[in-house]
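As promised in the previous annual report, we have extended the structural survey to additional targets. Below is the entry for 1-acyl-sn-glycerol-3-phosphate acyltransferase.
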Amino acid sequence: MTTSGTANSAATRTLDEAIAAIRSGPEGPRVPAVFDFGGTVVHGFTPGSALGRLLHRGERADLIASLLTNIRGSRAEGEYERFLQRVMHLWAGHPESELTDLGAALFRDTIHGHLYPEAWRLIRAHEAAGHTLILTTCLSAFQVLPAATELGFRHVLYTRMAVHDGVLTGHVEGKPLWRNGKADAVRRFAATHDLDLSRGYAYADAAPDIPLLELLANPTAVNPGPRMAMRAAEQDWPVLCFRPRAEAGARDIARTTVGFAGLLGGALTGVATTATTRNQRRMADSMITHAASGALGGTRVRMRIIGAEYARAPRPAVFIFNHQSQFDMVVLGAVLGAGFTGIVKKEVTSNPVFGPLLRFAGATFIDRSDTTGTRAALAPVVETLRAGLSIVIAPEGTRSLTPRVGPFKKGAFHIAAQAGVPIIPMVIRNAGEITWRNSAIVRGGTVDVAVLPPIDVSDWNPADMTAEIERVRQLFVTTLLDWPEPDERRPHRVRGLAGS
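The corresponding structure token record, generated without further manual editing, is:
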């Protein structure tokens, strides 16, 4: 298969083909997997949206713009030199800690939403093969380290800015990692850490990184520019094309408006149709199912569910899920239907939509900063389970910025053991692309859900669950890395516009 619309086409791989090649290739820590940052792991965006969000907090517009500049990757020698001269002049005299804190804030508020999910899967495939992950960039630590930490890179090569007594001097320390400088840095790192470049992998997008790709045995051009595409065709390098995640537009805002109307309308309809029963549980169940259906219909988000039978039985159970998006609440309602309530953080009570709905559904709200109060709040949940109502909880405790599955807290597992009910994992994929972590805007797309078989925790040692809980967390990691194919012999559902 070849690319189209370029002067020189090269062999284009699908992401699944690239991952299959990694799995069939060499393994172990001596094999390096080197990723360029801008344009390969993260795509470009307009700084204006981030400026608007941060200026009200008193941040400096010039510093913000300088940190966002060139994250897409420089295309010409002069472009990078102008960037470097500008930031050296602008950052001189500022405390290193100020730029570090601002870079972390920018990642949380903006940059995390522009990481390529495809790059995430590639990184995880190399990690599973035991390769040494290296992220490299011509940019500064302030721009790249927050993303590197979230993506799981222990080794990061970047252009170092000189610091004296904690203050930036306005000079570069050593040689900028640009063109041959980046390739040289990787070569030195490989020599120091006994890495075998003749078996290594490299991914980059722009012409200045051609020396980097030429350095390793398995180069791949990602979203290549014209000159990189030409070299890829000449050298028969494989090409990967990642889809950029754009900022929300008018269609997304309209979709969100209709979706929220559908959610609220569905919730009211659900309550109204069961109000004569005067049974709050039946009204809550009807509210949840109608609200989820209305939200899916309004936003036109599709769902694909594998293992739907485990969402219905056994009941009651403690359902655990990986939490990345506000849209997860709609997903949970659509998958589980009736007969459940949730354990959610206290902050959700301030949400004008989900707060009241969750109160009516009988959710338990916990203050994560109050450990003693949390234990007291969770005690009645055991009786809720014994009475026949299932519980859903995110064991990570908060939404993640990326598909990364964070450490699991123990509360859900203790509750299940005390109540004598199973744990049922629900692995959610793509919800973070539908609604970004710090946004209420709903984008179009498809959410995949894999409901895994129930896990009996009755014989777990309450005093030492650490190893068992980590094995459950690894089920989420493995499922996201190697998504299961639907089994035609068991029921699965594809929810369309009306949640049918």
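The longest strand covers residues 167-173. The domain at 250-495 is CATH 3.40.1130 (Glycerol-3-phosphate (1)-acyltransferase). These points will be discussed at the next consortium meeting with the crystallography subgroup.
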